[in-house]
Design a protein that fits this description.
about 0% strand, about 130 residues, 5 helices, single chain, mainly alpha
Length: about 130
Amino acid sequence: MSAPSITKFIIKRPWLKRWMVPLANWYADAAGYRKIGLRADDLIPEESDTVMLALKRLPPKEAYDRVFRIRRAMQCSVSHTLLPKDQQTKPEEDYLYLTPYIREIEAESRERGDLEAMVVKKRKQNKS
């Protein structure tokens, strides 16, 4: 599910971070999802089992808010309108709420795979 990321590479280099942060903010604004009230994690497709499990792990309020944002965005899309400025998602409100659960589930899956592939050998007893 997760794609490779160069975020850590950019954050470790202050000169590169100073150059990339305005570009990233411009891109997020140009993408337009904030103008219809969505957050970045609302754009993650729900087709994979990992995302479905992450959605089940969301707290009830966060899950309700997500459904509300998606329905409101669909209504904006159908009516070809944008939300008023006071209802649009602000950059500080656009935090990752689903991605931590997805990463946790992926880590659990990797751990489960490692444990299932592990071979346990019985020790030979020493006869003294």
